[in-house]
Amino acid sequence: MSSVCVHGLGYIGLPTAAMLANYGHDVYGYDADASVISELRDGEVHVEEPGLRAFVTQAFESGKLELVEEIVPAKYHVICVPTPFDREEMTPDLSYVRAVGDAVSPILRTGDTVILESTVPPGTTTGTLQPILEESGLTAGKDFALVHCPETVLPGNIITELRQNARIVGGVNGISTESAVHLYESFVEAEIRTTSDPTTAEFVKLIQNTFRDTNIGLANEIARLAHDYGIDSREAIEMANEHPRVDILQPGPGVGGHCLPVDPWFLGVDSEALDLIATARNVNDGMVEFVIDLLAEELDSLADSRIAILGVAYKGNVGDTRMSPGLRLARELQHGARQAVPATDGGTPGDPSVSIHDPHVDDPTLDLQSLEAATTDADAVVIATDHDEFAELDPDALGQRMAQRTIIDTKAILAPDQWREAGFTIRRV
Ligand code: SAJ
Questions:
Q1: Three-class SS state of 312
Q2: Does residue 204 belong to any structural domain of this protein?
Q3: What would the mean pLDDT of 314-341 be, rounded to a whole number?
Q4: Is-contact 198 172, C-beta < 8 A?
Q5: What span, in angstroms and rounded, lies between the C-alpha atoms of 148 and 124?
Q6: Which of 33, 106, 355, 412 is deepest in the core (most CB within 10 A)?
Q7: 150 and 19 together in one domain
Q8: Same domain flag for 234 and 170
């Protein structure tokens, strides 16, 4: 068992720190945001994730997970910090990675291993992190091990996937790779694959998320095509997927979260070859407009309507609203009238009134309403997230509250016949 300092206690760092501790390592959890440490000390788990609270509590109670205000020397440094992306400038913000490098460099010892898990543009581990760490006077691959090992866990299933997903480990040399494999072997039940270098491992992570985003882009384009041909995209995709080598994902109101809408752009940082990938990104971002078109097709006057959006989390059964299609839809619809979400511009009078409801989201900056309040007198309801609660909506109860019975089910979670029988006009993406 080893000493491990985990840098960054967010969606990935916190479960990783708890996992390592629960498998017997001596873990020091550090976060540059002091409020994260103090909340955790007060027993607050700031990441909404099934089972995480109990998992973190177990780690604390075992005495194997200690929170630290300053980073400490350790055999392993595992870096799980955010790497935001500026879409306008096409530049990644690597300041958090650099800051960890600056902090680790003075305490780095011969024999230590530094692992970068954050998603980064190809070349970051060797091009950005390595020179900072070598300011210590030590050399990567010779005196200390340096590795990229991307995280691949799915929000909503993080603890299971930390153990069960295959890991990709790419060190600057064989000894580096071996050292990281040794750490992951202590809790990963799946295969641990190694790449020739850290840049390949970085690239692999990006093309995994790009594959999913581009595939969803295809599904979304199919949905628009199906609309023009007057057929149901879901039925067509389900039938197409009967072919043994076809596996089209599901269309929807767009792609949210902090990974899929962002990671493909990292591939374009040092390459001009982004073409299909960029197009798919733009198709996915354009789905909000498509949903608005569907509303406009069903409502006499979109501008004078009341629209209730159900689901502002970025996907089903999570509380995370980062880059959520539901919020984007709300913003696009309600440039003026009544601000359920802070507007990005001043807006104009005459836009539809929008109310939002999400049983999983707790965000005081949003004007979230109860299901009843959000849907009362609504001219249309848009299901923007596939929360389990929404699949169980009662058409009669909802219809009685609404001004007219129109529902846009962007995630195809409702049974259309049942809703039609209740007098609804139902449209799906
Ligand atoms: N979505 C669709 N159609 C689909 C599937 C998803 O529109 O058929 C939408 C979702 O509604 C959501 C968005 O895509 O808005 C992203 O959701 P997701 O569940 O596909 O993925 P994330 O962002 O929660 O997690 C992804 C995962 N990557 C892959 O599956 C390749 C996860 O394994 C990664 O660890 C994570 O990104 C990450 O951290 O990079």
A1: coil
A2: no
A3: 84
A4: yes
A5: 9
A6: 355
A7: yes
A8: no
Q: Which residues line ligand 1 (CB under 6 A)?
A: 119, 151-155, 208-209, 212, 216, 249-250, 252, 255-257, 259-260, 314-315
Which residue in the list 64, 75, 205, 315 is annotated as catalytic?
A: 205
Q: What is the pLDDT averaged over residues 206-218?
A: 98
Reference 79, options 128, 168, 147, 177; nearest CA is 147
> Do 103 and 221 belong together in one domain?
no
Closest CA to 29 of 95, 61, 74: 74
Mind listing the pLDDT tens digit for each residue in 262-306? Answer: 999 999 999 999 999 999 999 999 999 999 999 999 999 999 999
Distance 397 CA to ligand 1 centre (A): 32
Whether 105 contacts 133, CB under 8 Å: yes
What band does 344 get if pLDDT is binned at 50, 70 and 90?
low
3-state SS class at 120: coil
Q: Please state whether the predicted TM-score (pTM) of the whole model is above 0.85.
A: yes
Ligand 1 atom at shortest distance from the alpha carbon of 257:
23
Domain-located, residue 205? no
Q: How many Cα atoms are found within 13 Å in the side-chain-facing hemisphere of 74?
A: 27
Contacting residues for 49 by C-beta, under 8 A, at least 6 apart: 11, 15, 155, 156, 158, 159, 318
In sequence order, the β-bridge partners of residue 407 are 381, 426
Quickly tell me which residue has 């979670």 as its tokens.
413
80 in active site: no
pLDDT score of 87: 80
My answer on whether 163 and 34 are in the same domain is: yes
Q: Which two tokens stand for residue 186?
A: 């202590």
Q: How far apart are CA 400 and CA 375, in angstroms?
A: 10
Would you place residue 341 in the very low, low, confident or very high pLDDT band (cuts 50, 70, 90)?
A: low
For the chain, how many structural domains are there in total? 2
The single residue listed with the structure tokens 């491990």 is: 4
Note whether 152 and 162 are within 8 A (CB).
no
Q: Is 405 helix (H, G, I), strand (E, B) or coil?
A: coil
